[in-house]
Amino acid sequence: MKNTHTCPKCGSKDIVRIPDNQGRYSSGNNIYTSNITLMGKIPVIRYVCCGCGYVENWVEGAGELQKIKKTFD
Ligand SMILES: [Zn+2]
Known about the structure:
The strands form two sheets. The chain has a three-stranded antiparallel β-sheet, with no helix packed on it. A two-stranded antiparallel ribbon has the order 2-3. 15% of the residues lie in helices and 23% in strands. By secondary structure, the chain is of the alpha+beta class. It binds zinc ion. The site of zinc ion has 8 residues, from loops.
């Protein structure tokens, strides 16, 4: 969906990108690599299909993916 801009469920091309809200303290979908500060917060970008409501979640930064790997692998 992120790359094709086409919904895999219904085939709609009506895809909207929802960026992470940096100002929000508790957005449920973000991944935290640290409990101490917001330094460890990894933004998760959402892609929503406006045709059927299907949602995909993506971590977009290569650096952030490395952080996740280090923390959880
Ligand atoms: Zn769809």
